[in-house]
Amino acid sequence: MSDDEEITYVKKQKTIHYGSLEDQERVRLSSLAFTEGDAEPKVVGGNINVSNEYFDLEDAISKDKQALLEEFERKKKARHVQVSTDDDEVKKNLRKLGQPICLYGEGPAERRNRLRELLSRVGEDVVAKKPEEEREKRQQIKDQDTTWYHEGPPSLLDARLYMAEYSLLRSHIRLEKLREEASIPESTLTARLQDLHKYTTSLSIYCSQIGDTRPISYCRFSPDSRFIATSSWSGLCKLWSVPDCSLVQTFRGHNCNVCSITFNPHAGTAENICDLVSCASDGSVKLWSMDSKKEEPVADLEGHAPFRVSRADFHPSGRFLGTCCFDNSWRLWDLEQGEEVLHQEGHCKPVYCMSFQCDGSIVATGGLDAFGRVWDLRTGRCIMFMEGHLKSIYSIDFSPNGYQMATGSEDNTCRIWDVRKRSCLYTIPAHMSLVSGLRYQPEGHFIVTSSYDNTIKIWANKTWQMLKTLSGHDNKIMGVDISPDSKYIASSSYDRTFKLWAPEYTS
Fold first, then answer.
1. CB-based burial of residue 152 (10 Å sphere; 0-12 exposed, 13-18 middle, 19+ buried)?
2. What are the tens digits of pLDDT across the range 274-292?
3. SS (HEC) of 183-249
4. DSSP helix/strand/coil, 120
C-alpha cells in the first residue's frame, strides 16, 4: 500500500443491551433446548449454577450485635460480682466449681478476676448451692445404707414375745453345756481329736444313688438321721431311706426348678404342723407331710411370686419358717397362724441363704450383694453387718456354740465370723471354684464345704486346717449336709446323683 492511497476508517456501531446478560443467556439457551416435538428440554451446552439461597446480611449483623450486647452485659455483671479478698476462700470456691485453683504464673489478683468471670457466667448462687447438693448426696447415700423396716401385723408382737421366751430357755441350756465342756480334762479333748482325725481320714463313698433325671439341687437329713430328702430341677422332691438310699416317697407339686427342701426340727412328731418345706424358682413354697399317703402338698405359702425363693429354713421351734426371696428381702411366716408376720429388707440384691441360731433368738442372711446380716428376731434390729466377701454369698450356717458362723462365697473362700466381736475371725481359701454349701458338724468339731470344683472338703474347727478332701462326683456339687448323729455326710450334684459318705468301719 502506497502513501498516496486514502485510508478509510469504519466506525463501529454501538450495541445497547437491555436487561441482564445472564437473563438473555438463559432465554437463548432455553430457546435452543426446546425443539418441536420434544417433551423434555435438552441442554445444549454450558454449565450455569443457579441458586435461590441468599445471604441475609441484616440477620448476621443482628446476631453479632446480640453477641456483643451479651458480652457487654456479662462484663457489666462481672464488675458487680462480689468476690472474697481472702485467697484461700477464692481457691475453695474455684474447687467447688471444678476449676483449677491455680494457673501457671497466676497471682491472687488474677485468680480473683478468673473467679469473677466464672461467676458472671454460671451465676453467683452456684457456690452457695454446691454445699447443699453435696449434703443431699450424702443424705441419699446414708438413706441407701439405712435398713428399712416394714410395719408388721399385730401377730408380729406375739411372735417376738414367743421367740424371746423360747430363746431364753434354749440359751440357758446351751451355756450350761458350754460350761461343762470347758471343764473337760485336756487328755479327754486330745482323745476326741484323735477320734475325729480317724473319722475324717477314713471317709469314703458309702452309697451313690441316681436321684432324678435332672440335677439334684439340695439334700437334707431328717432330725432322726433315718431319711434324706432331695430336691431336683425336674420339680420333684423325694424322700430316701438311710443308709440303703431306697426311695420312700415322692412329693409332686412344683412345676419348675426346686431350689431347696428342709426338714422341720420336729419332723415325725404329732405336734408339728408339717414335716418338710420346699421352695422353687417360680416363687412357690410348699409344705409336705411324711404321714400323708398323697403326693400333694399340705399347704402353699403364697406371696413371693414372681420372684424366686432360693432357700427356706425352719426356726428351731418349728413354728416359724424363714424364706429368702429374690426381691431383696426375706420373710418370716407363722405356720400356726398361716400368715406372714415379717417382711424384712436390708440387702441391695437378692437374699440367697439364711440360717437360724440354735437358740432361735437371731438369724443370719447372706445375699448376692456379697454382704451378710445378722438380725435379732426379738427386736427386729440388724445387730451385725458382715463385710469382707468379694462376691455373692451362697451358703451360711451357725455353729452349735451359738456365737460363731461360717459363710461360703463365689469368691471361693469360706469366712468364719464371731457375733460377739462382730468381726471376721478367719478366712479359709477353701476351693478352686465357688462354695455352694457348708455345714457345721452337730458338735462343732469341723466344717464341711462343697464346691463347683467337684470336691467336698472337711476343715478342723479353731485351727481351720483341711482334714480331708472327698472326690467322687462327676460334676459340680450343689449341696452338702451332715447327719445329726454325725455318721454320714450327704452331697447332691449336678451329675443327677446324691452320695452318702461314711467311714469304712461303719456298718
1. middle
2. 899 999 999 999 999 888 6
3. CCCHHHHHHHHHHHHHHHHCEEEEEEEECCCCCEEEEEECCCCCEEEEEECCCEEEEEECCCCCEEE
4. helix
Alpha-carbon distance values, 411 to 224, 424, 437, 451 (Å) = 34, 16, 13, 11
Mean residue pLDDT of the chain comes to 85
The CA–CA distances, whole Å, from 36 to 29, 32, 44, 50 equal: 15, 11, 15, 26
No. of H helices and E strands in the chain? 7, 28
Strand, helix or coil for residue 387: strand
CB 216 within 8 A of CB 229: no
- Please count the CA atoms within 13 angstroms of the CA of 196 that sit on its side-chain side: 19
Task: Spell out the residues 6+ positions from residue 323 whose beta carbon is closer than 8 angstroms to its own.
Answer: 279, 285, 301, 304, 309, 311, 312, 330, 331, 333
Q: How far apart are CA 234 and CA 269, in angstroms?
A: 29
- With cell 439334700, the residue in question is 219
Quick check: 25 pLDDT over 80? no
Model confidence, pTM? 0.71
Residue labelled with grid coordinates 440387702: 347
